[in-house]
Amino acid sequence: MEYHTGDTLELELSGLSADGRAVGRSAEGMTVFVRGGLPGQKVAARLTGVKKRMAEAEVAGVLQHAKEERPSPCPHGESCGGCPWQNMPYALQLDWKRRIVRDCLQRIGRLDLPEEKILPVLSCGEEAQWNYRNKMEFAFAADREGNTLLGLRERASRSITEVKACRLQSERTMAVLDELRRLCNKYRLHAAAARQTGRRPRHASFSRSVRQNDILRFAVIREPLAGGCLVELITLPSPQEAGTLRRLGQELMEGPHGVTGFVHSIRRSESDVAYGEETAFTLGETQISETLHLQGRDVSFRLDHNSFFQVNSRAAELLYNRAAELASSMSAGGTDGIWGETCWDIYCGAGGLALTMAPHFRQIFGLEVVAPAVELARENALHAGGETTFRFETGDAAKLERCFSRMGTPDLLVTDPPRAGMDENTVKAILRHLPPRLVLVSCNPATLARDLALLAPAYHIRAVQPVDLFPQTPHVETLAALETGQRS
Questions:
Q1: Which of 174, 184, 160, 289 is nearest to 233 (CA)?
Q2: Which pLDDT does position 209 carry in this prediction?
Q3: CA–CA gap between residue 276 and residue 274 (Å, rounded)
Q4: Is the pLDDT of residue 186 over 90?
Q5: Which fold has domain 105-124+312-483?
Q6: Torsion-angle region of residue 62: left (phi > 0), alpha (psi -120 to 50) or beta?
Q7: How confident is the model at residue 412 (pLDDT cuts 50, 70, 90)?
Q8: Given pLDDT bands bounded at 50, 70 and 90, which one contains residue 205?
Q9: Chain-centre distance for alpha carbon 441
Q10: DSSP bridge partners of 283
Q11: From CA 75, how far away is CA 164, in angstroms rounded?
Q12: Catalytically active residues, by annotation
């Protein structure tokens, strides 16, 4: 039978792909990846793309619920795409995340590791599965009547669900979001026009001329456990609304919800990324801090509105300490707790892994392509104190070979790359110089499997440790510990 986009199939879902989509098969055996489904469900699936041997789909309706399925505790659970696994019991989420990591290693990396080397998923516990995010990126959009919405993307869609409650956020974050929504309405600021794709708009009945106050794109709210609340409003270039936006920011900070800083950022690019290309102005305290208990001491991290930091602070603490434990397990160790002379942290950001490893090495080197993050890493290292010598540089990890040429080979190399994984030249440099121990951190099991496959001929994989930083979602962070040879 020939299938076409828009067709609806009845499918029994039996598994999950690496990106969290449910997997089913048509009557003819074609694999169908279904966004929004759960294993064990029988669904009506609407095809969104058809290829020769597989298809993609979205859930049009649930015909039969999975045996373990639970009711959605979120009022937006049926529409919002933010946490598609909230119908799945938490213990089952952890089980599936381990399976996703294992399947990626086998299918993508062709790595047949003993089962005991892929460890159970580490988590902060069932009681910490909600209200864990210290940062959320919300988007603005216009509905078909032209009203401005502020919320999160719908499942398998660029449309926006107006979010009034979110189980992943604190009550204060949601109160701040509601106040921001009110102020945008008060000052008659509207969502920026949707970018043109050359195709007919989904809501063809809605048309209007673009107004000068159609500028709103994203709102980012950061609320670290250490205190404070920073709001970033990202708009199109808007010199005509500069005074209005300043008044909005001042009123937001003077409100009852404890907003301590406000940033107005500009984004000209049409891509849907909640990242400001330029800072228009700031109000109040625009740096925030988070404190993690790492290797027996409290470490504070100063961050700005563009800083990358793990969105789950308590789970980040778990992740970094587990990285240190894996490094320790590959070290002969000394009575003074020193595991070696030098540790390199590649893709170091604001210094999370570097400061975790610091008590155990005499020298720490960090490399990061984002210059402001390097400055924050230096500041964070200075405040952390201790006897370790730090050196952070701005540079592309793809040119890691230059670092080896200048500084030799470290005793331990740790990496935490973006979702695309390590650059090919980074891997080649590692294989050329063979640091004896590696600890890899990855937010994407698929690219981790690829990188491990490239390293496997020269390295022994000691352990793979999934860590749950993102409950209610299919995302999983993973640690991998490698060494050049097994110690006797």
A1: 184
A2: 52
A3: 7
A4: yes
A5: Rossmann fold (3.40.50)
A6: beta
A7: very high
A8: very low
A9: 12
A10: 262
A11: 9
A12: 443
Report domain extents, the chain. 1-69, 105-124+312-483, 135-196+205-286
Phi, psi of 433 (to 5 degrees): -105, -15
Q: For domain 135-196+205-286, give the CATH number.
A: 2.40.50.1070
CA–CA dist 113, 481 (Å, integer)? 13
Number of continuous H segments (helices) and E segments (strands) in the chain: 9, 22
| pLDDT tens, position by position, 329-386 | 998 765 578 999 999 999 999 999 999 999 999 999 999 999 999 999 999 999 998 8
Q: For residue 3, what are its two tokens?
A: 């299938």
Decide: residue 271, CB within 10 A, 0-12 exposed, 13-18 middle, 19+ buried: exposed
Read off the tokens for 188: 């008659």
User: Is 72 in contact with 86 (CB distance < 8 Å)?
Assistant: yes
Q: Give the whole-angstrom CA distance, residue 76 versus residue 250.
A: 31
The first and second tokens of residue 485, run together, are 């040879």
Quote the CA–CA distance of 438 and 411 in Å, as a whole number.
Answer: 9
In the structure, what pLDDT confidence band is assigned to residue 17 with cuts at 50, 70 and 90? confident
Q: What is the pTM of this model?
A: 0.90
Say yes or no: do domains 105-124+312-483 and 135-196+205-286 share a fold: no
Q: Which CATH number fits domain 1-69: 1.10.730.10, 3.20.20.210, 3.40.1190.20, 2.40.50.140?
A: 2.40.50.140
d(CA 468, CA 473): 9
